[in-house]
Each structure stands twice: as structure tokens, then as C-alpha cells.
TrEMBL record:
Family: Belongs to the CbxX/CfxQ family.
Keywords per UniProt: ATP-binding, Nucleotide-binding
All copies of domain AAA+ ATPase, residue ranges: 764-894, 1026-1165
Name of the molecule in the record: AAA+ ATPase domain-containing protein
PANTHER family the record matches: AAA-TYPE ATPASE FAMILY PROTEIN / ANKYRIN REPEAT FAMILY PROTEIN, AAA-TYPE ATPASE FAMILY PROTEIN _ ANKYRIN REPEAT FAMILY PROTEIN
One GO MF term attached to the UniProt entry: ATP binding
CDD domains reported in the protein's UniProt record: AAA
Length: 1174
């Protein structure tokens, strides 16, 4: 090449002499090569390993890189297009084609990039090894350890083999466990082996065998838990054997048999002595003592000339103090009559108590005193009357609010004497006696607030007095009828008080009948109440108010801890609602045992709760009996102030009320027991609960035989037939709807049997409002109800006129009247009736007015069925006129649960002639069940969409066989996110974008979540929630619309969207010209965007109180962001006004478009702008 002195820098095109490609460069460089041109065609293909087709250059031409693309044919036979300069500089990137080759370590096939097929030079085996695990899938712990993988290679995609193998403990116990192949070889390399958890059988000293984890087989074992039969502790009396736990002490094993008990005076009774203990006191003897005291009191009242000595004697400790100070006239009869009244009241109260819960009669006549107040010398300066000397315990004088609404008398105790000694002057005391039967013992001084209610409750419980304790006094307060009498009056000297310092107070608590059992002093001594739940969490529930629940529960015990284990075992064995194995036999064994136990176990309050749960578990429609048992249990625990409610009360309340709040309480406080006690349906209400790993692969459509039986019994008795009813009962799920349909038929038949006069006087309405999510069968059921009404005779024609609210508004009230006239004698069905919106849409108001008239005046000729979402029906339709709601009976269509969704999947697969592994139904149903019980969930429609997507994918395969249509895992799951080439191309395109660092991070996190969900579903777990709706926040020109297009492709490849295209709209496209048009436009655009990405640019313009608010409200209602909606909505705009809109508008908007999941588009840096420019 000739030297040129040209230094011109103007850009010119010229042919690069090294390869023949046309490049651009400075003019002076072009002049350099002008005399040395490339001959022939430019280099198009370069073959690796062959001689180079390029001409070697030096200097400026060598540095001037040719960016034209050439085909590079690799030795591995793969081709790629790379810049020409990379080939010349020998800087061609390694081959990125995905291939499958045997792993260098284990021999399993592994996917990797072709350029890594040499495994980075890694040689794991020092000597050749026979890879026997490729045949038997077992790696022995005696295998020689491989060479550790160098740290530099640990991040390679092929570094870990994920094939499952068995790791066999050849050198120890011989058990194997499943693990990933790469983990197995790490264990050979020195990683500590996990404990062997394989089950092994060990023989216990008692002879029973127990299965334990292998690592525990040589450790001390727990006591034997086998069930055995032992003699009841009271076998000599009852002759019964009972269930017991082999390894537990047998002293308290007992039966529930009623046996004869008798007291020393010959009273007899049938008592559960074994279970509740042998009575040590007799209730009849106690009542005999009451009668004896009554007779004595009556005799004294009738005796003339009584003295104090005839009624009571002064105790020795008080003789020296009171002797010679008798009152001249003690009021004997005013004391005896109240005593008689008190005894009669006590007897009447005891007679209303159950026999073995009666307190023992404990009459006490004790000595008391009160201190006379001295006249204050300052009274002389005032006109107030001086204190009158006390001569009796006069209630009119002594009863005060501060004395607990009774007469407060001091007891003769050392504490009271000490207090009196602090006085300057010797106190004058009025002494006497008081009679009590039932005393509240040891009550401290009470706050006046709530005192009156406490006193009334104690009086209702039969108490006649209360022993009070304050910092300075010990007293007894006597309530009406005040059985007290003053007998002496004296002045206490310090010598008297010193003499009385030895007197100790005697507390008088109520005694109940003692029941003696082995191992305890009596059965009345209950197990101490442990820690309680914080009751504030239960406030607001009418059923739980005031109840106390234990903070700890083992998840097994059915009865209180003081009850024999034998009773617990018998309950577990007989009650069918308790999970576990049950003996074959009568299904009513549990009910019978519980009722027997209720008769004998008077202290076992849980029996009614268990009876309620058992009755609910058994087939049948009797709702009254379980509720009655539940009410009896609740009454019992409310009556026993110290009793704690059993945790299963939450479960019983849910099963009788269907309020999921109770299930949530149960799961919150006793989460460890959820798996055992809750049904799969109930577990749906537990936040975050995964449920069972599998469900039965197939179940029948009519999954509630009790409803079928109810219809069959009625149809047989009435000799009626209804194909429509049979078809309805054959539908999947909708249990409440089926019960409603049967009741409708029954009431319609009964109504038809009335005379014409009676029918006229008892007009019935057959108008209904069907509420529930889409896909629950509302329209299907409405058509069947039309035929059922015809079959029952309440309607005369097989007419079903179907319309919707929007159609009615568009055609007007006149057309509505014509449709109603055409439906006379049959059914008029109005879908999405809430869209009539009479308050917000002037077109809907006349339709609703006409609807009101028809529902009332034509109810004997026409059935009107409205359908829609429950909250929308209330807010948009019924709130307009409450009278409208009362004219329609509400029928709730519940969302399908996981089992029902799986059944729908299987029935649709079968109907289309396909076959599929059972696991596919589990995966689909669990994925869909995440959206259940949320407004907008598609139910059967969502299943149909999944079926169509899976079958479409299967038919697109080259291996599809039309004669044997079969679905595989990838038809439902799609390709693994890490190995989907189409998805990879989209991700590569995003990664290649200049800037977008925040977006790339968000996309990677999204892909990681999808990959995790892929693995979770393969493992039988529910996927984690996925948010498809996004905020795109940033300034203009940062690539938001470009990213939206890529986002749509991304969601399509991940199977979230069926189409993946982008529908671009601005906020103004949603604006309506009249009231209600904005909502209509929004609904239409959302429907148009089904399967696509709906982009709303400059979305912050929707932040107003008029049409924009209406648009956002529709978005909140229609777009749930569940991952199964087949639509993604993107709101684009500046960050500040967008976040302001989230704060100020519908609160649901922030949940549909969470800020933490937003794509934030940062401004380009100067360097990034320069890159874009070039």
C-alpha cells in the first residue's frame, strides 16, 4: 500500500482490504487502501479450523474493526452470525446452542451450552469408575469420592445434576434416601450425612412392636402407645374392661358404667362411680340436714318466753368480754323469722340444681360486732342531730352502698383488735350473732363500678353473705333477709383486746360433694386452668363473647385433662368425625356412646360439643339436633365461670354457621391442628395454607348423597318426576343451590295442594336473585329452574326468556314490557342485573320501576330471576329501593373448591376424548383454587380455558397422534422457564436494551418467581401469587411502550396470556359523552383486551371525581390480578401523579396495581444516550 499524507477525517465508505466488506471510516484511511483493493466477493462464511480467508493487516487498518456479520461455521457443526472483526481477532464467543450431553461426573444427561461441552476441563475421577447408578439409580456410600468441582466452575449451569437418585448407606444400616444426584456426590466428598429417617421396626419390652426412624432405633424409646384392654380401676364394682394405653399407668383407667352407690344412712343412686369418683358425701343427707334446721327454727319460733341462751351460747373466748353486758331486750323473733326465710330460700335454690352439683349444707351461727360511732363535739356548733346509740343490728340504719348493699359486721379476729387498739378512746361495741348458709369467701374491697351487677349475680347463685377483707378490717356482709341479732353491748378495754389477739379468722368457702378416685384426693379437684388466649382477638363475635380458650392444646384431646384416658380412647374409637381408623359397625356408635356418656358424666361438659360435631358428620339434613347440642354446650360453659371452651368449638361454629371467621380463628390459635381437624374445603379459608399434596384423582359429580337421598325420598313419596331436577342434582358442587331447588319443589307442591281460596290468601313469590362469580352455573341453573317450576305445577309454560341489563337499557322500558309479556307463565332471566344501576344510569331507572311492578303484581304468573355479583347487586340495584330486594329470594352460588375444580377438569378432558395423568388435574385445580372466593373468579370458565390451552399446545406438537390424544405435563405447565427458547429470545431482547437496569432486575425477579412456581406445582404445591398488572412509571422517551410490547410476549410465553399482543389506549379513549358511558366503554375495552396487554397511557388523567373515577372503579371490579385473568393491564405515566391517584381513588386500585411491583423507567444517562445515538 502506498503511503498517503492525507489527514482528512470526513467519513467515507470503502472496501476493507482484509475482508472485502464495505465499511465506514475517515477519508485518510480510505486513501491508504485505494491502491490495494480487495479482489472478488467479500468474506461471507468462515469455517472454524480451516485456513483464514482474511488478509492480515497492520496499523490503523488492523485497528479499524469491520462490524459486518459473517457466518461462522463451528467445529461442532453449529453456525452463528458474528461481527467480522471478532473472527479476525479470534474473539468469537463460545457456542451458545443448547445441547444435551452426558454429565462428566455422573453420566446423566444434562442441558448446557455447546461451548461448555468440555466441562471446563473438569475431570472428577482419578481412575476409571463403573457408573452403576445409571442402571440401578443408587449411589453407594462406599463409592470413591470424586474430585471436588473447582470454585470457578460452580456457577456454571451444568454444575449441579438435578436427576433424583437413591443414596444407599451400604456401610451402616443399609437404608436409602432420595436426593439430587449432585448432592449425593457431595455426601461422598465429606459432607455430613443426614440422620437416617427410614422407618424400622423395634420390639418393646412389653412385646409390642413400634415403627421408629432408624436413627432412633438404638436410643431409649418412648412408652408403648398400643391400645390394650385393662380392668377398670373399680372392677370389683362394675366388672368392666376398658381401653387403655399400654405404656401409661393404669391406676385411673375407668369405664362410664352407672353403678349403685349408697350412703351410710341407706340413700341409693345410680352413679358413674368409676369415671367421676365415689361420692364421699350424700346430697340427700345434706337436704335432710336442711329440713332438720327448718324444723328446729319453726319450733323455736313457736316457743314462748325464749332467751338468747335458748338460741345460742357465748363462745368461751368472748365470755369474759360480754358477760354481764346483755341487752335488756334482745330481738329474738326478728332474728328467727329471717333465719327461717333464709333456709326456705336456700332449699328452693338447691332444689333447682342437679343432684350431684348441689353444695353441701353448711349452716353457721357466728358472733360479730359493730363499733358505735361517738358524737363529734363539733356537732354542738351545728344543728345536725347527734348519733342515736345503737341497740340492735337495724338494717335501716346499717345497710349502705359502701357496705355492699348489706349489713356489715366485724368478725372477732386479731386483725380487727389491732385496728381498734389504735383508737384514742376505748370503743363501744354492739355484739351479737349472725346465721349464714352460703358465703362468698375472701372478697377484697371492690370498686363501686360494677359492684351492683356482681352482688346480683351472687344472690342469683344462692349466696346470702360475703366475707370481706380490707387493709384494716375483716368483716361479713349480710344480705336480705338479714338473719342477725344484737345480744350484748360493752366497752372494749385494751385488756380485752389483748386477750382476743389469739383469735384467727375462719374462712367459710362453699363445699361441693367430694368424689374420690385413685391417684387423687377427690374428683372435684380439677386440673388447674393454664394460660388463656387473649380474648380481645375474639371480640365482635356474638357466639364467642365472654368465652375463654386455652392458649395450649395438644391437638388430640377431646375432653378436659382431668378425664380418664380410657374415656378419651373410647371417644376417639367411636366418634366418626374424629380422623383416624374406626371399627366397622353402626355409624351411630359415636352418637350412642356420647349420649350414654352425657347421662353418666355430669361433669363432662364437652360431650354436647362432641355430639354436635358427630351429628354434623353423619348423613342427613337434620340441622336442629346439632344446633341444640351446641347450644347446650355453650350454656354449660357459660354456667361454669371457671370453665374454658374447647378449641373444636371454632370448628363446630363454622359447620353450623358457615362463617369462615371461625376457621381463621382456629388456624391462628391452633395452627398445628389444622391438618387433622379441617376438611379440604375448610382449609381453603386458612390464609396461606397449602392443603394436602394430592387429592383423589376422580370423584363422582353428585358428591353429596344426602341431598340426592332427600330428593329421591320426596319424589317417591309424592310420586313425582323431574328430569330437570335430576340434571341439576347431577351438576358438580353448588350444594346450597341444590338444597334450595329441592325446597322450592316441595313448597311449590304444597302450594298447589291448597284450595284456590287458600292460595289467593297465601300468595307466594317465586322470584329469585342468583348471586355468585362467573362460571358457577347461574344461567344453566336458571334454565333448569324454569323446567322445575313447570314440573312442580307452579308455572304453566316451558318458557325461558333470557336477556341482560345492558340489552334492556339499550332497548328501553317498552321493549322490556314486551319481553315480560312473552315470558308470562314461565321465567324471565336478567343476567348482570346490577348494570341497570338506577341511581347512576338514567336508562336503567324506568326498567327497575317496571321490574318492581312485575315482581309484585305478576308474581302468580311470572318468575323473574336476576343474576350477578352479590356486592354489585346490593350497591347498584337493591340500594335504590329496599322494597325491590324483599321481592327476590337470594340464592348464593359458591365458588368451586379444589376437588370440584379437579372434577370439572377431568369431566371436560373426558368429554373431549383426551386422556391425562391424574397429577395434571391436581396442578390445574390447585392453581385455579388460588383465585376462588374472590370476586371475578371464573370457576368452570377458568377450567375450560385451561383445557383449551392444554389441548391446543398438545396438538401443536409434531408427535401429536389424533388416534390417541394424550396430554403431557408440558401441555399444562408449559416449558420450564429456564429452557424455553422463545422465552429466552424475549429475555435476550430485554437484556440487550440500553439502560433499563431497574426493569431488567424486575424481569429477572419475575422469572425467578415463575421458575419457583413451576417447581412447586410439580411437587404438588399451590403456586405463589403472581401479579400481572403493573404500573409503568417514568418520563416520556424512556421506553415504556416498547417495554409493554416485550412484556406481552413475555406473559404469552409464560402462559399467562393466550394472545400476548398489546392494545394501546390513552386515558381519553375511556371518556364517555353521557352518564354511564365511561363504564360501558371500559367494560368493552377490557373484553377486547382479553388475552392481551391493555396499555393505558397517561393514566394519571383518570384521577378525577367524574368519568375517570368511573373507569378506575370498573378496573378494580373487573381486573383481579390473580394470574388467571388472561389479561394484564398496564398504567403508564409520571411517578408522582400516578402514586397520588393510587392514594386518592378506590382503595382497591393500590391492591390491583401495587407500587412495590411497578416497573420504574429511569432517565438515560449521557453515556447511554450516546450509545442510543450511535
Amino acid at each position: 500500500m502506498a503511503p498517503v499524507n492525507n489527514t482528512c477525517t470526513e467519513v467515507e465508505s470503502f472496501q476493507h482490504p482484509s475482508c472485502g466488506h464495505v465499511v465506514q471510516g475517515p477519508c485518510h484511511l480510505k486513501q491508504t487502501v485505494s491502491s490495494d483493493r480487495w479482489e472478488g466477493e467479500a468474506v461471507q462464511t468462515v469455517v472454524e479450523g480451516q485456513s483464514s480467508p482474511f488478509v492480515a493487516m497492520t496499523g490503523a487498518l488492523q485497528r479499524h474493526k469491520c462490524t459486518n456479520l459473517v457466518v461462522y461455521q463451528r467445529l461442532c457443526q453449529h453456525e452463528t452470525r458474528v461481527p467480522c472483526w471478532q473472527v479476525q481477532a479470534h474473539q468469537v464467543p463460545k457456542c451458545r446452542v443448547s445441547i444435551v450431553v452426558p454429565h462428566v461426573l455422573c453420566g446423566h444427561e444434562v442441558a448446557m451450552q455447546c461451548g461448555d461441552r468440555a466441562f471446563g476441563g473438569y475431570e472428577p475421577w482419578k481412575t476409571p469408575i463403573s457408573k452403576t447408578w445409571l442402571q440401578d439409580h443408587s449411589v453407594l456410600d462406599t463409592t470413591q469420592p470424586p474430585v471436588l468441582l473447582p470454585s470457578a466452575l460452580k456457577s456454571m449451569s451444568w454444575a449441579t445434576c438435578k436427576v433424583s437418585v437413591w443414596f444407599k448407606r451400604q456401610s451402616t444400616c443399609g437404608h436409602s434416601f432420595e436426593t439430587k444426584c449432585s448432592e449425593a456426590f457431595k455426601l461422598l466428598g465429606g459432607t455430613d450425612l443426614p440422620k437416617c429417617t427410614s422407618e424400622t421396626t423395634v420390639t418393646l419390652p412389653c412385646g409390642h412392636e413400634v415403627t421408629v426412624p432408624c436413627f432412633k432405633s438404638n436410643e431409649p424409646l418412648s412408652p408403648c402407645s398400643e391400645e390394650v384392654h385393662r380392668n377398670c380401676w373399680n372392677y370389683a364394682t362394675c366388672g368392666q374392661t376398658v381401653l387403655a394405653i399400654c405404656g401409661k399407668p393404669s391406676a385411673q383407667d375407668c369405664c362410664s358404667k352407672m353403678t349403685t352407690w349408697s350412703c351410710s344412712k341407706g340413700h341409693e343412686a345410680q352413679v358413674a362411680q368409676c369415671m367421676e369418683g365415689i361420692p364421699e358425701d350424700c346430697p340427700w343427707c345434706s337436704m335432710d340436714a336442711v329440713d332438720s334446721e327448718l324444723a328446729t327454727t319453726r319450733r323455736l319460733l313457736a316457743t314462748p318466753g325464749l332467751t338468747v341462751a335458748d338460741i345460742c351460747t357465748v363462745p368461751p373466748a368472748l365470755t369474759s368480754v360480754l358477760q354481764g353486758h346483755e341487752l335488756k331486750k334482745a330481738l329474738l323473733k326478728p332474728y328467727l323469722q329471717p333465719k327461717l326465710d333464709l333456709l326456705l330460700e336456700y332449699k328452693a335454690w338447691v332444689d333447682n340444681r342437679s343432684l350431684w352439683k348441689q353444695p353441701l349444707f353448711q349452716p353457721r351461727t357466728e358472733w360479730y360486732f359493730t363499733v358505735e360511732k361517738k358524737e363529734n363535739p363539733t356537732h354542738k356548733k351545728h344543728k345536725a342531730a347527734p348519733h342515736k346509740p345503737l341497740e340492735s343490728f337495724e338494717p335501716k340504719v346499717l345497710v349502705k352502698t359502701e357496705t355492699m348493699q348489706g349489713v356489715s359486721l366485724l368478725e372477732w379476729t386479731a386483725k380487727n383488735m389491732q385496728h381498734l387498739l389504735t383508737r384514742k378512746n376505748p370503743p363501744v361495741v354492739l355484739a351479737g350473732v349472725g346465721f349464714t348458709v352460703r358465703v362468698v369467701a375472701g372478697v377484697p374491697t371492690m370498686n363501686p363500678k360494677g359492684q351492683a351487677n356482681w352482688i346480683q349475680s351472687k344472690k342469683r347463685d344462692g349466696f346470702d353473705s360475703v366475707q370481706m377483707t380490707s387493709h384494716s378490717a375483716e368483716s361479713t356482709v349480710f344480705w336480705h333477709p338479714y338473719a342477725i341479732m344484737a345480744t350484748h353491748k360493752t366497752t372494749l378495754t385494751s385488756a380485752h383486746m389483748d386477750q382476743l389477739m389469739s383469735l384467727e379468722r375462719t374462712m367459710r368457702p362453699v363445699r361441693l360433694i367430694e368424689r374420690r378416685r385413685p391417684g387423687s384426693s377427690s374428683s372435684t379437684s380439677k386440673a388447674s386452668v393454664g394460660a388463656l388466649l387473649d380474648s380481645t382477638a375474639l371480640e365482635g363475635s356474638q357466639h364467642l363473647a365472654g368465652l375463654r380458650f386455652p392458649a395450649q392444646w395438644d391437638g388430640e384431646s377431646l375432653v378436659s385433662t382431668g378425664t380418664s384416658a380410657s374415656i378419651q380412647l373410647e371417644l376417639t374409637k367411636n366418634l366418626r368425625f374424629v380422623p383416624g381408623k374406626h371399627d366397622e359397625g353402626s355409624p351411630f356408635a359415636g352418637v350412642n356412646y356420647a349420649r350414654t356418656l352425657k347421662k353418666s358424666a355430669t361433669e363432662l361438659v364437652e360431650v354436647d360439643l362432641l355430639l354436635c360435631l358427630e351429628l354434623l358428620h353423619l348423613p342427613g339434613n337434620d340441622e336442629m339436633a346439632p344446633k341444640a347440642a351446641l347450644e347446650a354446650y355453650m350454656d354449660a360453659i357459660e354456667e361454669q365461670a371457671t370453665a374454658t371452651a374447647h378449641p373444636l368449638l371454632f370448628v363446630a361454629l363454622f359447620r353450623t354457621t358457615n362463617d369462615p371467621t371461625y376457621i381463621k380463628h382456629f388456624a391462628k390459635f391452633y395452627g398445628h391442628a389444622v391438618g387433622k381437624w379441617l376438611t379440604p374445603r375448610e382449609k381453603q379459608f386458612v390464609p396461606g395454607h397449602e392443603g394436602q399434596s394430592t387429592v383423589p384423582p376422580s370423584i363422582g359429580k353428585s358428591n353429596d348423597p344426602t341431598i340426592l337421598q332427600q330428593w329421591q325420598d320426596f319424589a317417591s313419596k309424592e310420586r313425582v318426576k323431574s328430569d330437570a331436577m335430576d340434571e341439576l342434582l347431577d351438576l358438580i358442587g353448588i350444594r346450597k343451590v341444590k338444597k334450595f331447588a329441592i325446597q322450592l319443589f316441595q313448597s311449590a307442591r304444597a302450594f298447589k295442594k291448597l284450595s284456590s281460596k287458600a292460595r289467593k290468601a297465601n300468595q307466594m313469590s317465586f322470584n329469585y336473585c342468583f348471586v355468585g362469580n362467573a362460571g358457577t352455573g347461574k344461567t344453566t341453573v336458571a334454565r333448569l329452574i324454569a323446567k322445575i317450576l313447570l314440573d312442580s305445577g307452579v308455572r304453566t309454560k316451558d318458557i325461558f326468556v333470557e336477556t341482560n341489563a345492558q340489552e334492556l337499557k339499550d332497548k328501553g322500558a317498552d321493549e322490556f314490557r314486551k319481553q315480560a309479556a312473552a315470558a308470562m307463565g314461565g321465567v324471565l332471566f336478567i343476567d348482570e342485573a346490577y348494570d341497570l344501576d338506577p341511581k347512576g344510569d338514567f336508562k336503567g331507572k324506568p326498567i327497575v320501576s317496571e321490574l318492581l311492578t312485575l315482581a309484585d303484581n305478576k308474581r302468580d304468573q311470572l318468575t323473574i330471576i336476576l343474576a350477578g355479583y352479590e356486592d354489585d347487586m346490593q350497591e347498584k340495584l337493591f340500594s335504590f329501593n329496599q322494597g325491590l330486594k324483599s321481592r327476590f329470594e337470594h340464592v348464593t352460588f359458591e365458588d368451586f373448591d379444589q376437588v370440584e375444580l379437579q372434577t370439572i377438569w377431568e369431566s371436560q378432558i373426558d368429554a373431549r376424548g383426551w386422556t391425562a395423568p391424574p397429577d395434571l388435574g391436581v396442578i390445574v385445580s390447585k392453581r385455579l383454587a388460588l383465585g376462588a372466593n374472590v370476586k371475578g373468579f371464573g370457576n368452570a370458565r377458568s377450567v375450560r380455558k385451561e383445557v383449551e390451552l392444554a389441548t391446543k399446545h398438545a396438538m401443536s406438537k409434531e408427535s401429536f397422534d389424533g388416534d390417541a390424544m394424550h396430554l403431557a405435563m408440558d401441555d399444562v405447565m408449559g416449558e420450564h422457564p429456564l429452557f424455553n427458547p422463545k422465552l429466552k429470545r424475549v429475555l435476550d431482547e430485554i437484556e440487550a436494551k440500553i439502560g433499563w437496569q431497574s426493569i431488567k432486575t424486575s424481569v429477572r425477579e419475575f422469572i425467578q418467581l415463575c421458575e419457583k412456581n413451576y417447581q412447586r406445582q410439580l411437587a404438588g404445591q399451590s403456586p405463589l401469587p403472581v401479579m400481572l398488572n403493573r404500573l409503568f412509571l417514568g418520563n416520556p422517551g424512556t421506553g415504556k411502550t416498547t417495554c409493554a410490547t416485550l412484556y406481552g410476549k413475555l406473559l404469552k410465553e409464560l402462559r399467562f396470556l393466550s394472545n400476548g399482543e398489546v392494545l394501546m389506549k390513552s386515558a381519553s379513549d375511556f371518556m364517555g359523552q353521557y352518564v354511564g358511558e365511561s363504564q360501558t366503554k371500559t367494560v368493552a375495552l377490557l373484553e377486547l383486551a382479553r388475552g392481551k396487554v391493555l396499555v393505558i397511557d397517561e393514566a394519571y388523567n383518570l384521577d378525577d371525581k367524574l368519568w375517570g373515577k368511573q373507569v378506575l372503579d370498573v378496573l378494580v371490579e373487573k381486573v383481579q390480578n390473580t394470574g388467571t385473568d388472561d389479561i394484564a393491564v398496564l398504567l403508564l405515566g409520571y411517578e408522582k401523579p400516578m402514586l397520588s391517584m393510587l392514594r386518592d381513588q378506590n382503595p382497591g386500585l393500590a391492591r390491583r396495581f401495587p407500587r412495590e411491583h411497578a416497573f420504574v423507567f429511569e432517565d438515560y444517562s449521557p453515556i447511554e444516550l450516546l450509545e442510543i445515538f450511535h
